[in-house]
Design goal:
The protein has one domain: YbaK/aminoacyl-tRNA synthetase-associated domain (YbaK protein), CATH 3.90.960.10. Helix content is 27%, strand content 29%. The chain has a 5-stranded mixed beta sheet with strand order 5-2-3-6-9, with helices on both faces. Strand 2 and strand 3 form a beta hairpin.
């Protein structure tokens, strides 16, 4: 079985995406991870795997300084119910553990929904394994996955 970071690299190559994977010390929080990478918390994009009522999933890409807005995401997806799956279901749906999830190399090509605030940015995100971060141009990632771009986040309370 390939290492998770190899799956990410291979998936990026298949889609013509230019990525950089950096090893970094473990971080206890997103702000700490941002500090270790020398970027703002907004520069780290959280990949959330979200379960639909029909047991299919989607990826929501949200800036690290914001939270998912469930009403906004439900409206964009066109459904009444969405939820975060438990860690085991998230792993089964993506092949990645929580905290490392990324659309690249996921065991399933779920639809991607990207918050509009990441457009035009170079972003950091999970790289499939703990202790690694992936850097990519958000616009390239959005294009490679045919992602839906919309306002799907809100300030963190």
């Amino acid at each position: 079985m390939a290492e998770p970071t190899d799956r990410v690299r291979n998936a990026a190559a298949e889609r013509g995406l230019d990525i950089e994977i950096r090893e970094r010390p473990a971080a206890k929080s997103l702000p700490e991870a941002a500090e270790l990478l020398g970027i703002s918390p907004a520069g780290i994009v959280k990949t959330l795997v979200v379960k639909r009522s029909d047991d299919t999933f989607l990826f929501a890409l949200v800036p690290g300084d914001r939270a998912i807005s469930w009403p906004k995401l439900r409206a964009v997806v066109g459904v009444n119910k969405l939820q975060l799956p438990d860690p085991e279901r998230a792993l089964a749906a993506t092949g990645y553990e929580r905290g490392t999830i990324v659309p690249l190399g996921s065991s399933n090509d779920w639809p991607v929904f990207a918050d509009e605030r990441i457009v035009g940015e170079r972003i950091a995100m999970g790289a499939g394994a703990h202790g690694y971060s992936l850097f990519v141009q958000a616009d390239d990632l959005i294009a490679a996955y045919g992602a839906t771009v919309a306002d799907i986040s809100q300030p963190i309370d």
